[in-house]
Amino acid sequence: MRVSVSWLREMVDLPEEPAVVAERLTMAGLEVEAIDEAGRRLEGVVAAEVLATAAHPTRPDLLIVTVGDGVQRFDVACGAPNVPPPGGKVVLARVGARIGSVQVEERGIGGVASAGVLCSETDLDVGSDPSGLLLPPDSTPPGADAADALGLHDTVLELSVTPNRPDALGHLGVARELGAILGRPVRVPRPPCPLAIADPRPPSPDVVVVVEDPAGCPRYGAKVVRGLTVRPSPWPLRYRLHLLGVRAISNVVDVTNAVMLLFAQPQHAFDLACVRGARIVVRRARPGESMRTLDGIERALAQDDLLICDGEGPVAIAGVMGGEGSVVRPETTDVLIECAHFDPRSVRRTARRLGLSTESSYRFERGTDRTGVPGALAHAAAMMASLGGGTVAEPAIDAGGPGPDRAAVRLRPERLARIVGRSYEDDEILGTLEPLGCRVRRAGGGAFDVVAPGWRADLGREIDLVEEIARIRGFDSIPATAPALPAGPRRRGAFERHRRMREMLVARGFSEAVNHAFAGAEPLRMLGASDGEMLRLRNPIASDRARLRTTLLAGLLANVRTAFSHREPSVALFEIGRTFHHDPSRLPIEVQRLGIVMAGARPEWLAAKPAAYDIHDVAAAVAAVAEGVLRRSWALRPDAGLAAFHPRASCRVSIGGEDAGVCGEIHPAVADAFGVPRGVVVAEIGIGPERFDAEPPPGMADLPRFPGVRRDLAAIFDERVTAGEVEDAIRSLGPDWLVSVGVFDVYRGEPVPPGCKSMAFSLLYRVADRTLVDAEVDEAHAGIVNGLAARYRVTMRT
Amino acid sequence: MSADGEGTGGAADVEAEIRRLLADLDPALAAARSPDEVRAAVSRLTGRKGAITALLKLLPSVAPDRRPRIGAAINAAKDEIARRGDARLAQIDRDELRRAATERPVDVSLPPRGPRVGHAHPLSSTMQDAVDVFAGLGFEVADGPEVEDDFHNFGALGFPPDHPARDMQDTFFLEGDGLLLRTHTSPVQIREMLSRPPPIRIVCPGAVYRHDDDPTHSPRFFQIEGLLVDERATFADLKGLLALFVREFFGPEFPVRFRPSFFPFTEPSAEVDCGCVACRGAGCRVCKGTGWLEILGCGMVDPKVFRNVGYDPEQWQGFAFGMGVDRLAMLRHGIRDIRLLYENDVRFLARF
Lengths: 798, 352
Prior knowledge:
Chain A is built from 20 helices and 39 strands. Chain A is an alpha+beta fold.
C-alpha cells in the first residue's frame, strides 16, 4: 500500500519528517518498507511561457516553439498537438536539465537545433498521459521550478499491511493509526461540496436493486449522479493517483479510486444508460455463464462466483472487476456508483480462481467496513458531482443495511498485565482504545467493556485489545525478563543422533549435501522406486520436480554430476534427510535416511595413480555409522535383485540384524543416465528414530586373564568363494574356544592360478581359565585346515 | 697373562693387568663405529671368553687373604668397562640422530596421511548452533511429519479457509487426499500439544516448503520454531528469551528490537530485528539501508490455538517463535543467493 504523506497531513498534524512518521508506523506494526521522495527527480526543469510559434522548416509534423523562462528565449522543436498560444505556460527541460537519470542534450531535429524539450506527463514520469504537453496554470511565473509549480513534492510511504489490517489499506485508516500513536486528533475528510445540489428526483423509479445472495453480499449501496460531463480530473488528483500507483482515467473513475484509497472502500461506476432494465441483481453465476471484463477478456464463470447483473446479464464480477459493457465512456452523463460489502471468502475464491487480483479484490478479501458504506458513497457522489458538474440523486440505495451492532468485549486489566508482563494505567488503556475509534465503558471490578468501530473487524476478542494496547503503547515499554525455565527432560533424540553421524562422516572426509525433496519420476524409477510409491505434487515448481523423493540417491548423484562438471577428481558426499512413500491408509510414510555417495579417485597419499573408490570405501562409512553412532552390528549381504546396482557389487545392508538399506556400485546404465562416471559407489540406510532409540549402556565382562594363541591360515580358493563364507566355515569347524577369525589378505597372480585367489585368515584361540598348550591348538587348527580342504578342495599355503 | 698366580707378585700383576686392559679399551671403543662393534669390544674383556673374565677364573688360586681385594678390583673393572661401553653407545646414538637430522630430515610439509576432514553443510551447522542455545535452556527437540494435512498446518493454527493469511505461505499440495507439504514447523507444536498436557517447552527444527523460487526464497527451506506453555510465561519473558538467543547466536554487540506484526496463531505478535550483522547498523545493501535485519517472528500463543488443542486458555499461556535457518546461515556467512545452499557444489561446501 502506497501512502501519500501530504494526504495524511490533511487528516492529522504531522510536523515531523516523513522518516520519523515512517519509524513510528513501523514500530506500531504498519511496517514502512520504503520511503519514496517524489518531486526530487527533476533538476533544471522549469515553467516557461510560450512567446511565439513557427512552422518547422523541414518537418511539417513539428513546430518551432519559442519560449521564455523569464531570462532567456529558447527555440524548441515540438510535435505535441496542444501547444498553447503565446502567453500560455509549458514545462521546459532545458539542455543540461535532468529527469531522473536522463540528461537533456542539445539535439538537431530536422536540421534545426532544439534548445530543450517541452514535456508531457510521461516525459516527466508524473502521469500516464503521453498525448500532449503538460500545461501548468497560466498564472505560473516563467522560470519557476516545475516541481514547485506542479506541486510534485510529496513523500510516499510503502506500507506492508498485514492481512488483519484492511483498514490500513486506506489513508484514513493510516491517519487514525497515527492519531492513536501520536495522541493527535484526526480530521475525517468531508465531501468537497455540500449536498445541497442533490437531485430531488428519487432514484428508485430508475433503478431497482435485488440482492439474491445476502450471504455473499450483506450490504449493497448505490448512488446515482446525473448530468455530469466525463473529462480528465484536475491535475492534483491525477498526480496523487499516479503517485499512489493508480492510472488516472477520467473524473468518474478517478473519484472511485480516490475514495477507495481514502476509505478502503472499493467502488465501481456503471454508465446508468447501460444498466439494462434499470435493475441491479446480485446473484451467483449460472452454469455456463461468461462475461467480458473491462480488460477485454472473456471470462468463463463458475457457479460459486458472485455477480452484479442488470436486467439481462452480468455487468461485473462482484468485488473483482467490472464488465466491459457498462464501463463509463466519454459520452456518459448518468452514473451509478456501487459501494458494497461482499463476503471476503467469496471474493477471494473467485479472484484466485480467475488469477485476477485487483485493488478492489485485495481489499474485499481482507474485509471492508460494512458500516462505512454510506459515508464512502456520499463522499464519492459529492466529489463526482463537483468534478463533473452533475447532480446527486437522493436518497441512496441501501440493501442490507449496517448489520447488527457489535457486541462489547470485556477487557480485564489484570489479564492484560498477565499476558504482557507489565501493567497499564487506566488512562493508558483509554488513551489507546478511544483514539482507535473504540467506545469504552467501565464495567465492574476494574474491567472495561469495549465496542470496536466497524473498520476494525479484527478487534473482536479480549486478546485483540491486549495486542492493541501493547503495540500502541510500544513494545519498547515492555521489559525483557527471564522466563522461568525449570529443569526438564533433555530429550533430543534423533537430532542428537544426526549430529553425531554428521561429525563421524565429516571426520572421515565426507562433505554434507542438502538437496531439495523434489524429484522427477524417471530418476526415482531408475533407482528402484515404484510408481505407486511416489507422491505427486499438484502444483510443482517444474514438471521434473513433481514427485517427492523416495531415495536420497537421486539428489546425491546429481551433486556428483555437478562436481564432475567442475572437474573435481574425487567426490565423497552424504545427506541426512527424509524420503517419502505413499501409504493409502494414512499419512505418507516418511523415512529418515542417510545417503552416501563416493565417486572418482580415492585421495590416497602421494599415490602416482590413485585407485578409484570402491564398495569397500562405502562399507567403511556404513560400518563407522553403525558401530560408532548407532552402536549396532552390521553386515552386507549380496542381493542380485537390486536393479539400480551393478550385479557384481549389489548388497543389502543389515544393521542390528534388521534390514536397513542398500549398498553397492551404481549400475553402469544408471550411471550413464545420471551423467556420472561409471563405478560410483553408494549406500543408503534408514536411520529412523523408531529403530535406533537409546539402548541401555553395555555391561562390562571380565577381561581375559590368560593369553590367547594366534595362528594364520592361507589357502587358494575359487574366485566365487567369499571371505565371509570361509570365515563362517572356519568358525563352524573350529572349537568353541576359537574366539575370532578375520581375513587379512587377498592375493591374485603368480603362483595362484587364474580364476582363483589366495585368502589369508588370522585366528585367535583362547580359553578363560588357563594358558593353552601348543599341542591342543595344533590339533584344533589342523582340524580346521583339513575341514576347509575337504569343503573347498583348496590348496593350503601354510 | 699366565695362570701361575701363585707367585708373590700375583695380586699386583692382576691389578696392573686390569689397568692395561682398561687403557686399551678406550681406543677400541673410539674406533667402534656401530653398536655391534662397541658390544664386541666390551665382550673382548667381559664376555665369556674375555680377558677380565679370565682373571676372575684365577681368583681361587689367589691367596685367601688377598682374594677380597683382587675380587673387588676385578668387579670394579667390569662395572667401569660396562659404563664406558654404554657411554660410547649413547655417543653413537647421538651421532646417528644428528646425522639423520642433517642428512635425511623428514619432509613434514608433505600432506598428512589419510582423508582430510570434510565439511558439514552450513544449514545443518547453523541449525545445530541455534538449537543448542535453546536446548541449553531446557527446550526439548521435537519432530513431526513434513507431509501434513490442512488441520495441523493451518486450521488448528487459526488460518481460516479462504483467508488471505494463507497467502503469506504459498502452499504445495499433493495430488489426491488433501495433503500438503508443511509451510512451517508449527504443526509440530500442534501435534505436541495434542499429545500431552502442559507445561511444554520444545524447539522444532526441520524442513518446510513454500511455493517460491528466487535468490532469496527457496521452495524448500529450514525453520526452527519454539513453543513454551505454562501458567505464567509473558510477552516480557519472550522478549528476554529472544534477546538472549540473539546475544548467544550473533554476539553481544548486536541490538534487538521487537516490532508489532501479525501471525494467525499468535497475539500479540512481533517481528524481531537484529542490528545488521553486515554493517553493524550503519545501513547497507544487506539491510536495505535500515540498519536492521528481520530474523524472527514470535508472539503469545493465540487463545484459539489453545482451544483447538484442548488447553484452557484462561489457565495456560505461553509464547511461540520461529526463524528461518537459511536466513541465519546466509547472514552468518555472507551468502547472497539462497540457491547456493541447495546446489551442493563441492567448491561451495569446502568453504565451511
